[in-house]
Amino acid sequence: MRMNCNWVYWTLTTAAILACLLFLTTVMAAKGSVNEQLLRAAECGSLDQINTLLAKGGDVNAKDNIGITVLMKAARSGNIEAVRLLIGKGADVNARDKIGDTVLMDAAWMGNLEIVKFLIDQGADVNGTDNDGETVLMEAAISGNLEVVKFLVDKGLDVNAKNKKGKTALMDAAERGNLGIANFLIDRGADIHAEYDSHETVLTEAIEWRNLEVVKLLMDKGLDVNAKDKDGNTPLMEAAWRKNFEVAKFLIDRGADVNAKNKNGRTAPMSAYEDLRLLKFLIDKGADVNIKDEDGETVFMEAARMGRFEVVRFLIEKGADLNAKDKYGQTALIKAAWGTSLKVMELLIDRGLDVNAKSQYDQTALMEAADWGHLEIVNFLVDKGADVNAKDKGGKTAIMGAASNGHLDVVKFLTEKGADLNAKDKDGKTALSVASAKNRSETVRYLKAHGAK
Predict the structure, then answer these.
(1) Considering the domain boundaries, does residue 372 fall inside one?
(2) Would you state the pLDDT for residue 71?
(3) Residue span of the structural domain in which 393 resides
(4) Of the candidates 161, 89, 83, 153, the residue with the CA atom closest to the CA atom of residue 129
(5) What is the tens place of the pLDDT at every residue in 297-341?
(6) Paired residues of 3 in beta bridges
(7) Do 339 and 307 touch, CB atoms closer than 8 A?
(8) What pTM, to 2 d.p., does this model score?
(9) DSSP code per residue over 56-108
(10) CATH number at residue 431
(11) 240-248 mean pLDDT
(12) How many distinct structural domains can be found in the chain?
């Protein structure tokens, strides 16, 4: 896949332009072999120098180190007279570079209708594909030149041809925001429901690249606003995941279901927890803050786990169930202990969450924070009454987790707060034995110095 040719054209560097000017002004003083000079002359579209260098023995089919031919460079320069000259001298119109591109693909990618027509008249293979299965029509769809696309379709190119990943020309047009081309291709039979890479579609391409007008076009052409892909994701979920507020707003205005679930039970708000503006909008439009996914997790739990303070506070205001548990019995507080946001922990405790609440495996927030080595959160939880010697169902304590993972600062703190250094789990393991097993030498020395056995 190439970059957008318009971007390439308009970002042509001053250095490249000066290089062409320098070449043209120094003429025969140019460095390099005759073929190297010929390639540069073609790149600059210089008829006089091309003629001169061919007369000096230059190979009309010479290639650079990535297989780009003299003819390809001339086509990219946009000088059709240079293209005519080279073909008249025997240039191969169907030669390929190392990625399988032909000069016709280059011309289509550049959106040069005149050169495209001429090359086809000269026998260029209009049905060829590159190494990735990209067609000439796909290259034209990227270019943004509607007239080239129309010409190629009128020549019989398949509007629904797919590359090796399953991508179509319509998807390329949607990605680039080429509205006129997308509209034309659909009118000529392009499949608006085609998918590639398991779930990517024309619509997801438009959403990902923030091409709202293409999204509108697809809806106007009959795409179901609540259609689901193979994973059960809807267009609104895709927009939420991409943090695309404008598209999300449009989809909801067109009737998108804000509470639709995918195969994992996830909803659009669960994908929008990082974007408070979008999340607020979804909830204002009726999204249920307490819907659970297949793991029993709510958007509130997810925001707490990821340490999104403003989002957590907003969801509480909107009625999030503070004491909800996932299918493992974990609360938002336990999940928040995985992260590093002390502000979230403070907010949850201030709102009355039980500092010693346990999951179905009897794990507590303190155990999680100790496991992850979050000393500041460990300190806060202990200060709020967390039991430093609580055990999970396997008999593991907070200090065992900290010792096992080498969090010496947490081990020291818990020791000072009265943690039992010689507590044993159901397998008879202690903080010292698990630290030894993991080669946590500093932790081992500290524990021994403080009476651990």
Answers:
(1) yes
(2) 99
(3) 367-452
(4) 161
(5) 999 999 999 999 999 999 999 999 999 999 999 999 999 999 999
(6) none
(7) yes
(8) 0.88
(9) TT--TT-B-TT--BHHHHHHHHT-HHHHHHHHHTT--TT---TT---HHHHHH
(10) 1.25.40.20
(11) 97
(12) 1
